[in-house]
Sequence to fold (489 residues):
Amino acid sequence: MEVDVIAKDKHGDPVRGLEAKDFTLLDDGHEQKITRLSVGGSSDPAGGAPVSEPKAPPSPTTFSNTHPENLAATVILFDVLNTAAEDQLAMKKELLRSLSRLQDGTPVALLILGENLTVVSDFTTSTISLRSAAGSQFDLRPEGFGPPITVRATGNPTLDAMILKAATRAFRAEDQTRMASTIAALNLICRQLARIRGRKSLLWITGGLDVSSDSRAVQDVIDRLNDANVAVYTVDARGVLLDPGIGADNDSTNLTGPLLEQREDVRNDVLATAAASTGGVFFHNTNRLDGAISQALADRRLVYVLEYYPQHGDWQGKLHKLEVKTSRPGVRLRYRASYRATLPAQPNAQEQQQMLAAIASSPLDFSGIRFSVEVQPGKATDPHFVLHVPVEEVQWSSENEKMLAGLQVWFIQKRASGADVVTSNWKSNLRMPMNAYQVATRQGLVLAADLKVQPPASRIRVLLRDVNSGKIGTVDVPVDTKPALQPAH
Fold:
């Protein structure tokens, strides 16, 4: 198990230099031995580098998927389905203003949840591209989450009770429909982000969600977000809220007034719960969206990854509470609050093909397996590819004092437009004596292949899949490096 921990001081700055001995990790109240601590997500050398760097010689022709931006993807979800019409326009303006301050180099995707989940911009590290997509493809939902239902009291207690009962049913039906669409969208986002390694961030800009009728659905999606290592930063799109009790338009004759107040309270609670349970932050009573974006991006600078082996032995779906403490005074920790003890489901053949196709066409390197590709001169003008893979990135089994694993490699040659030119692949079955395995743990695995590059190709996507775990990583190699690789005459 891995638990990502954000450590901040009282000023909100990252706390550096923590070691395993500084942490105590509890699983359902039982202290666990931290078998490994690594530091990830920082481009600042002072923050430490991920420990599983592929061991490739430094070279201008070595390409890797371990650079920090590929380990900290951020999704912005603008939820117009659950946001009142009067709040949507203000938050759109705030979003565009916040994006204008975002620096290049961080992969960000922008989605809108309306009647359907729409991708405004897939992952891009270009802020210009992101702002352009947000400005031109951003469709608001004029009706928000539906017009308010106003029912006047008649003065007849029996009739008022009947009317209120009908209005309540209408409220609940609308809420349930909206909730089902929202949960489905969050589950879809979760499945996509689960393919990306490391801590991911989901900025959910919304007016909230009323789940009083089915709180189990929310807990289920929180479990999935935690399993996928997604921290949720919820932003209350209602901005600065006023006490409904002091509103000038408060109408005591409106029978649905108490329902509206109850809905607002529940919606707020859901946002707070989703953030706290996943190690994110809940932003409310503020009109500053850029503060939420800045917080999510700042958290990626320094992440402590605690690894341990759960000793309970029960993987039948029980929810386990996690608690992390530190002996360092004045340090505040954020981390996911729980995990559900289930074994990962193995995708069927069709799901595997769909996953491979999606990853192969993604605009970003995929770091489900971290590795590097060294390009060396080959025969004639065609390059020789050498893959460097850390042993710990691969799932191993043992048999007759040998360590077994399997790796599949695809070379996908692509045009500048992203269209495939040609694909080749091969499989390597590894059977290593223990002494060779020990050497590999220090030096890494090396896989090599020659490749004939087709002239229309502008880049080659190297896709590596671990047969046992199903994890996948990709590294993009530009073809324009080939002339520099030709043997000297």
